[in-house]
Amino acid sequence: MRAIRYHEHGSPDVLRSEEIERPSPKRGEVLVAVRAAGINPVDAKFRDGTYPQGPHPKIPGSDFAGVVEAVGDDIDEFAVGDRVFGTGLGIDRQGTCAEYAVATTTHLAKLPDGIAFTVGAGIGLVGVTAWEGLIETAGLAVGDRCLVHGGSGGVGHVAVQLASAAGASVVATAAEQYHDRVRTLGADTVLSYDRPDLASAIGDAGAPDVVLDHRIDQHIELNTEIASQGARIVAIDSTAPELRYPDSGLARAKMHTLHHFAMISLSDYSSALKLIARLLESGNVTAEVARTYDLADTGQAHRDVAETSFLGKAVVVP
Ligand SMILES: NC(=O)c1ccc[n+]([C@@H]2O[C@H](COP(=O)([O-])OP(=O)(O)OC[C@H]3O[C@@H](n4cnc5c(N)ncnc54)[C@H](OP(=O)(O)O)[C@@H]3O)[C@@H](O)[C@H]2O)c1
Fold first, then answer.
1. pLDDT at 92 (0 to 100)
2. What sections of 208-297 are H helices per DSSP?
3. Is residue 283 situated within a structural domain?
4. Reduced to 3 states, what is the DSSP secondary structure of residue 58?
5. Of the four listed, 125, 161, 186, 207, which is most buried by Cβ atoms within 10 Å?
6. What pLDDT does residue 280 have?
């Protein structure tokens, strides 16, 4: 089969298109013919060595959608021909940027009929992050006010839809050119993340009860200032390793809870994926597929995800 692999850490240039042996599913595993593979910022962190992972050579890619080609012993839930999507690969096992990928059932759910493979491949990691972060971790509930930083990004654009579908009122930040589309996705208010009066503009929309933050080091002061009494703040990433409260007294007085969340630390993605499948089927949530690439252009997709601006997801098609 054709697969993208890297034999050492480095820039996207280390990604090579290679012909390798097709894997076979062992007991408890499912072999999927990959129809589309989603690209995420974390793929670059594994590729460049920021996050350590299993031995080389490595196939990158966490997300995928495709058709079950074969199943190993002890698989009852999936059969040959099923449409599936999944996430969480490429960490301690090989990834998804290949013609075939092997997964356990903890990485998989059935993809509803009528949902494109590119959408299934685009929503795995970001959908699980948005669901687990907002609903399971922060307990977002009907009537809550939810602030989504980076509402046009992979995680952000799904989080906006999910929070809106959960009955929250949603404030999102995004670059000006995406404001209309982020509103269409379900945000009640969209604000440019670089406006100097961002804190008061968020305050005008109402103090958020839940905040989803992908740049917690940059926003910790803002979040402390604007979030409501008892707010839950979910931090999914930062731009620097150091994190300090400029005013921890205020955070304490407001009894804020800061949750650090890492999707790749979950041991089972399947229950969240099944819920996402239902949301896809109901039309409440989708992944906006902004760009598709040939498998051989996976390196370019890695570059674009890191360096360019678009709303939604980049997806590779073998
Ligand atoms: N902990 C976890 O489980 C987890 C899971 C998924 C992702 N993550 C991390 O979360 C981050 C976002 O992931 P993603 O997939 O959504 O990435 P993405 O698709 O690249 O989106 C990043 C978003 O951030 C926006 N942005 C750029 N500068 C900003 C600023 N100064 N303030 C606010 N927003 C800004 C971008 O907007 P423009 O297009 O205008 O630049 C874009 O909408 C990444 O660092 C990723 O590694 C963590």
1. 87
2. 216-226, 248-253, 270-282
3. no
4. strand
5. 125
6. 98
